[in-house]
């Protein structure tokens, strides 16, 4: 690895010093308004000579004119790098950025194409002259346009670029082939062409800065694109500036920093914090924590779930982050508590009840994790006050709403009774899994380990757990203890029964709930839901 530069960024507290070497990649991640683009401009303008820096702005033109007439390679390259025909780095700010490097529209697609054409032409001429001189006809070298074609094909295998002497066309692959001008490419395809071309045309040992590298690019191919660009420019270092946490997480080898804020006076200064990855918490989540000014609430599920919208509305003082299973919520909160560097914001977690005992819930609350009153978060909409609030939104009177709730309860009791064996079996599996995970296994030799394991597992009697929970649920069904049944009945499909009560499909019902949750002023539904959810206190407790 070749040392390219030392970057010093004015930062709150001590200045941030970063050694930049070839093959390195860095990510500066921050919310809109945190000063990320200004940071990119600062890096471009302050890295000391002879460091070569090439910055690609987020605000860039996608107009693609494939019929540009290329000048000499030297002129074309200078226009691309500096916006001026001569090698004048000092002219870059005025010629390339119009003296507004933070905000100007980067309109250099023509310059890029001209440089690619010129390099391709120059390589062809040099090759021909050399081969004729030596009377030795070897395979021609790859031009940068050839390399661009190869990367394009690897990222977009259903399209192929055809490079002509003064034009570029595209052909589709497969049975129904179609050929058309490259100017007819989609915005996403143009961006891919543009970014590959910019990376290839940068001089050797350049620090490349890409602002919003994910813009307009399909999430399914973004990893492959940047993997290819990093691979082909190992002589360079790449700095990514982004607000996209998913993109940040995908660049696993990059050194990452959270850009929290920027202040212009009395001088340029950023609040930047390294995003450390010690394995206890995924670094994309750490990035959210570092960049947040609010406490964090970890929940089960994923970013596309209904419960995420629900939690964000109820716990609107928190940054809500879904992390998967209940075990992952518990683990993430515990990992957060163990890390002093994250204690500038509080943390808590919410998980499904899963039939946990009162003692277990109390123990979890001491660790900052709170349980719902139902076994599945979706089943909150089956709880009486919530169901009646929804019925009211659908304009049913009290008598009609009560009748519908009574019918729903009957359906739930019937389903629970019919599926009792399966409910109990799933419960037993969860209990066994939980108990096994709590076994310490601190022995230092196999004999004592065997003894310790046998003693620890001897207290786990599946049949006994099964019979106890079966008896408890049976009693709740018999005595019509509706909310007690929902505490153990782990069936997400019950939400469809709620929708059916109102004559709706589940998806339509969920969309309606989503609209109700966003109403301003809040609907009565929100108050009904809040009456069941736990009052959360972030750790460290104030």
TrEMBL record:
GO terms for molecular function: ATP binding; ATP hydrolysis activity. InterPro entries: ATPase_AAA_core, Bact_Antivir_Def_Nuclease, DUF4435, P-loop_NTPase. Residues 128-246 form the ATPase AAA-type core domain. Residues 295-484 form the DUF4435 domain. Gene3D superfamilies: P-loop containing nucleotide triphosphate hydrolases. It comes from the Bacteria. This is DUF4435 domain-containing protein. It comes from Desulfovibrio porci. The lineage of its organism: Bacteria, Pseudomonadati, Thermodesulfobacteriota, Desulfovibrionia, Desulfovibrionales.
